[in-house]
Amino acid sequence: MDEITREKIKRHQEKYQNFLKSMNCCPLCSEPLVLVHEINEAEEVIKETAHCDRCDIETRRKDHPRH
């Protein structure tokens, strides 16, 4: 693998890590979010909520279809 390819892979990995951090950390204080997943068998839905214990805010609430 040449040096240019290694650099591309490294930049891609850094972007991916930054994306994950932004999705899983509080936008106000940067603390890791607490994720809660509940499975509703009847509706075949997974309910996800994310909140920050430090700031006491809910940052996201999503419903995901079960496959």
Description:
The protein is an alpha+beta fold. It has one helix at about 5-25; strands at about 35-40, 45-50, 55-65. The chain has one domain. About 35% of the residues lie in helices and about 35% in strands. The radius of gyration is 17 Å and the shape is flat. The mean pLDDT is about 90.
Highlighted features:
single chain, 67 residues, alpha+beta
Task: Please give the structural blueprint.
Blueprint: H1 3-24, E1 34-40, E2 45-52, E3 57-65
Antiparallel strand pairs: 1-2, 2-3
Structure, briefly:
It is built from one helix and three strands. Strand 1 and strand 2 form a beta hairpin.
H/E element order:
HEEE
Uncertain regions: pLDDT < 50 for 5+ in a row?
A: none
Helical percent range? 25-40%
How many structural units, i.e. domains? 1
Instruction: Give the spatial strand order of the biggest sheet.
Output: 1-2-3
Strand content: 35-45%
Q: How is the biggest beta sheet arranged?
A: 3 strands, antiparallel
Instruction: Please tell me how large the radius of gyration is.
Output: 17 Å
Number of strands: 3
Mean pLDDT, to the nearest integer, reads 91
Number of helices, counting only DSSP H or I runs of 4 residues or more: 1
Shape: flat
Termini distance?
38 Å
Q: What class would the helix/strand composition place it in?
A: alpha+beta
